[in-house]
Write a structure and sequence with these properties.
Elements: E1 3-11, E2 14-21, E3 28-33, H1 38-52, E4 55-60, H2 71-77, E5 86-89, H3 97-103, E6 108-110, H4 118-121, E7 137-142, H5 150-163, E8 167-171, H6 181-190, E9 194-198, H7 202-211, E10 215-219, H8 224-230, E11 233-236, H9 244-257, E12 261-263, H10 274-287, E13 292-296, H11 298-301, H12 308-322, E14 326-329, H13 339-356, H14 382-389, E15 396-400, E16 403-408, E17 411-415, H15 418-426, H16 436-455, E18 481-482, E19 485-486
Parallel strand pairs: 3-4, 3-5, 5-6, 7-8, 7-14, 8-9, 9-10, 10-11, 11-12, 12-13, 13-14
Antiparallel strand pairs: 1-2, 15-16, 16-17, 18-19
Amino acid sequence: MAKENHYRDIGENAIEMLETLTPQPQHHYHFVTGKLAQSMLREIVETMARQYGFCYSIDVLPITVAALISAPWLVKRMHVPNHATHIIVPGYLQSGLEQLRDHYEIPVVLGPKDCRTLPELFGSAREPDALDKYSIEIIAEINHVASLSIDRVVEIACRWRSDGADVIDIGCDPGSRCQHISQYVQALVLQGHRVSIDSFDAWEVEQAIAAGASLVLSVNSTNRKLAKLWGVEVVVIPDSPGDEASLAESVKYLSDEGVPFRIDPILEPIGTGFARSLNRYCTVRERYPEARMMMGIGNLTELTDVDSAGINMTLMAICQELRIESVLTTEVINWARSSVKECDAARRMCYYAVSHQVPPKRLSDDLVMLRDPRLTAFKGDTFDELAASIKDNNYRLFADADGIHLVSREMHLSDTDPFALFAQLSQQPISENVDPSHAFYLGYEMAKASIARTLGKQYTQDEALRWGMLTREEHHHRLVRSGRSTR
């Protein structure tokens, strides 16, 4: 077996050492895994076996996650075929590897902790996870449309479509009829948008449908008789949240009349029955296993004092597992101003996770916005060693848990306060070379470093902080000393 050691950054300030195997057609690899990762592992191994021509077997042990496997436990339960030439165990078994190697007469190889990186064990680069598939439709609601111009409505709709919206919902105001509803719908349809109308006003609904709307939000016992005249799909809801009897009656009526519909049991905000409403979605799915369903997730993102990305991801996961095919969202409150884009990223990750039966981890950094997935840790004497090795007077900035560090030739300054750090610099002999433009640059970079320390983000000088899908790339502005001046 030809092999070499290499190292891979696996996050959480950890380094994992892997062996690289050179597969041969006569090799038979016996892979060990837990129940959670078996589907993903099987798919990856099948692909590699076709690529390299080796034989394999997969030992799915009676445990959910491989991280809980110990060497003594494994020895008692693993069934290794007589013709196996190698055993590949999960990367979490590093501490018990020698015990396994002493027990078996064939090589026992430590694989990765994440089976998706298994191709690296055989010398291949990991293929990026394809997040190009999804099954949840995003309906994005433009609220209080009558207060907006047609051009503004079209502008919002086009932006949301580029962010991932599939349907643009026209939100009307109860008690105030939108006299120009047809003009809004026509303008959107002309731009190629699919349009839904959110109103209990029969006149508004009829005008919107005549102009091209293809979905009506919402229908209950008060207007379900009109639904059979509209000729479009509707969203059926209970007469009041939690009224399961009225929902069942409306579902039966629409079914009997042949009206296409999707069911929304109504998601209630936290504090008014949120947990119970989640349970109703489960109950409806069990009662109507083949029915189309919708969840209005804006009831949670708009009414909870928290950044929306995590809520959107969680609710999209619930929808994916319950086969709820559409969600209704909006971007009224500032902390939810990127909800459409977040939902698009979340539905792709959730589709991948559910279809591959793996947690949605290490799939994408798009929704890791407040903090970063991983940080670079520095040894205690790193900056002093760097200062001793530098031959020029350029300033290097770093940030870690101890503070912000400014390093140059034979100089290492640090402080948790950027102002105090700059004051230290002003006392140094080379500070006379810091002209206004250089001072502005250092101040800007120190501010970024301070933000990174506050939020637990990775700071890299002259690079944009990473905000997931909201990252704005920066031009490089590093100023380099030339003689006694800066440029």
